[in-house]
Amino acid sequence: MCGASYKYPAKLGMAVAAVCAISGASPALAETEPANAEITVVRPLSFVIDDNLDFGSLIPGTLAGTVVMAPTGTRTANNGIVLVGGGQSTATFSGQGNFNQRVDISLGANSILITGPGAPMRVRTFVIGSTPTAVLTTAPLRFRIAAANGIFTFPIGATLEVGANQAPGKYTGNWSITLNYF
């Protein structure tokens, strides 16, 4: 499985250059911008992260509360926490194995702390979602690869504990996931 990310699409630059060349106009000012081209090559029996778990933006309440990011991408809050804007996303992983292969999932911890300018916040209750290419079965968490080509994706959501009057700013932390192919 491959993914590509382009910050400045090359095709757009060529189209603009072609229009300028056809019109015969010479630019009064010219500027060159560097562009990046990226790709992640995934070997069989491995996986990569496509999107990080992001709870988006919020306004804290006067009481402590929680924000739940479901594996479906739905975000809910309680105790006066106001969800603002978009930008939230589940953690999404993809990889390749073999059709009908069993894959066991284990998380490095049941909860983590994310840190920023204020008191740390706990992220807990990680929930792994089922998809057509990775249909979950019972505990321990596992799925069978359902796609004939062996490519699979699955999302993970979690619950964020927000303190009363949590200080504004960016909070980050790390967590791990392990897949075992059988």
Automatic annotation (TrEMBL):
Keywords: Signal
Lineage: Bacteria, Pseudomonadati, Pseudomonadota, Alphaproteobacteria, Sphingomonadales
Name of this protein: DUF4402 domain-containing protein
InterPro entries registered for this protein in UniProt: DUF4402
Residues of the signal peptide: 1-30
